[in-house]
Amino acid sequence: MAIPVPLPRVVKFENDAYGMFIHWGIYSQLGQGEWIQHLKGIPMDEYVKLKDSFTADQFDAYKIAMTAKNAGMKYIVLTTRHHDGFSLYDTRGLSDFDAIHSPAGRDLIAEFVDGCRKAGITPFFYHTTLDWYQPSFNEDFDAYLEYLRASIEVLCTHYGPVGGFWFDGNWSKPDADWKLDELYGTIRRLQPEAMIINNTGLSHLGELGHPELDSVTFEQGRPTPLNREGMSKYVAAEMCQTINGHWGIGNHDFSNKSTGELIENLCACRKVGANYLLNVGPTAGGQIPKLQEATLEVVGDWIRLHNKPIYEGKPSLIKGQGDNFALETEDGRTYLFIHRLSIDGHANVTTGDGGTGPKAFTGVHQEISSVRWLDNNEELSFTHDPQSGLLCFQATGYPYGDNLVVRIAVIS
Questions:
Q1: Is-contact 301 374, C-beta < 8 A?
Q2: What is the per-residue pLDDT across 197-244, written as a single tens digit (0 to 9) for each?
Q3: Are strands 357-362 and 371-373 parallel, antiparallel or unpaired?
Q4: pLDDT in tens, 284-309
Q5: Which residue ranges form the domains of the chain, and what is each CATH number?
Q6: Strands of 382-385's sheet, edge to edge?
Q7: Cβ atoms of residues 85 and 132 within 8 Å
Q8: Which residue of 101, 217, 326, 396 pairs with 316 in a disulfide if CB–CB is 3.0 to 4.6 A?
Q9: Cα dist. 155→113, 125, 137, 391 in Å?
């Protein structure tokens, strides 16, 4: 069966490859994650007082956008409203539980969009569908859905073209009629080129939903290949993940993922053609924590060595052993991703065992003139049988002082 041709907005999304997720709101002042009100059972009439101390005095949208850009990220998804019901945008009369009515006194989403555009980053809007603040969510669901739709209409009409809308919360009422035709129809009418994504949650990774959706989601889990044969439309895939264990900032969460793990996760996403959406949790004032900022910068350094295959590479029928895999670009080049190489050097200063030596790939039927490392252009010896498709090349180790975590060879 045929695979549908992706729409231009989906092509752009897949080529963007890597994005920043930002969870930030009044909950950030407590430093215990974005679910603190719900998990701690804080009465809403007490919780809402956090609005009175929300200043956003360190929020610099352009600086954040440049941090994303330097990290190799092409888009940012920001929580315009999370489950606690507080909006970072001017809701224009729909509610006074928003940034305009806080000491910040500003439309922070307007600043976010402006900062992204100045930095050449595509802005996306996260928006909750679940709402702990609005009584109508439980008492008059139809009225709540109109409030939600009107909120999205505000976001569609006051900030210019945006990359997309990233919804989250339908899993809270799995059997309800969310009137998605009306919600998504508002976006298609006012932002026809916007991606529409609705997170299926931890228990339904990669699940397809409403026909207007443009991407499936994999929350905190590596994506699996999508079988798009016979689909009514081509949908993308995206993995979203935290740097530590919280989406919103956790002041005492010291379990941060290493740069090596993040690089491997990015490669695992690209292996199956999925995007990687990596979260940061800004401080109460709106500043990305220094460790997270530095972590992103290091991953960005790795991406700069491998721009072309990361952004332009598409899944290949060429197969490697273990975690090794191949991506192909439209110019006919094939890139081989190699995991767990060891470092060359004197036994007294090197650690690790194995990793170098012959690496085999099958399905390589084109003629080959060279195999070389992408990072330093070192030519590698190889044997190749085009008829059987077997390619075997000699993988040298990292020069002492280097470790790329995943090293890429290009064949031509």
A1: no
A2: 999 755 565 567 799 999 999 998 899 988 888 888 999 999 999 999
A3: unpaired
A4: 999 999 999 999 999 999 999 999 99
A5: 8-304 (3.20.20.80), 314-411 (2.60.40)
A6: 371-373, 406-411, 334-339, 325-328, 314-320, 357-362, 390-395, 382-385
A7: yes
A8: 326
A9: 11, 8, 20, 52
